[in-house]
Amino acid sequence: MSDRHEIEVRVRYAETDRMGLLHHANYFVYFEMGRTELLRARGFSYREIEDAGHFLVIVDIGCKFKRPAYYDDLLTLRTIVERVTHVKIVHRYEILRDGLLLAEGHSTLACVDREGKPQALPATLQ
After folding, report:
1. Which candidate in 69, 71, 93, 110 could, as Cys together with 105 as Cys, close a disulfide (CB 3.0–4.6 Å)?
2. Helix segments in 4-121, DSSP class H
3. Main-chain dihedrals φ then ψ at residue 67, nearest 5 degrees
């Protein structure tokens, strides 16, 4: 299974502020898109994992903004699995425009059951 995946994302007008810059909150939406598509590339979906009683919740997330992204930019989002433990997955993200790094981020997801109690990741994610 691959531990990295790339997708292209075009910045939509609704995702920008009055200056035409990609609003900072949308970087986290893009990170979620990256995680979802990485999982899909591995042959799974969040729906299947949740239907089996495993829920992946964000326990830590962050982003360092290096350069702005603008309306209509075509961006490359690279999602990388950095580390997997018994109950957590750590991802790293890179957002690039024409190979230039605009932002880098990270997230940690913990696996919990339907009641929100920590549980082991399913074998398919370890």
Report:
1. 93
2. 25-41, 46-51
3. -145, 150
Question: Cβ of 122: how many Cβ atoms within 10 Å?
Answer: 14
Ordered domains of the chain (ranges, CATH): 4-125 (3.10.129.10)
Q: Is 42 exposed, middle or buried (0-12, 13-18, 19+ CB in 10 A)?
A: middle
pLDDT averaged over every residue in the chain: 96
Q: What is the DSSP letter of 20?
A: S
First vs last C-alpha separation in the chain: 10
Query: Model's pTM, two decimal places?
Result: 0.94
Instruction: Please confirm, yes or no, whether 3 is among the known catalytic residues.
Output: no
- Give dist(CA 33, CA 27) in Å, integer: 10
Structural contact between residues 73 and 22, judged by C-beta atoms closer than 8 angstroms:
yes
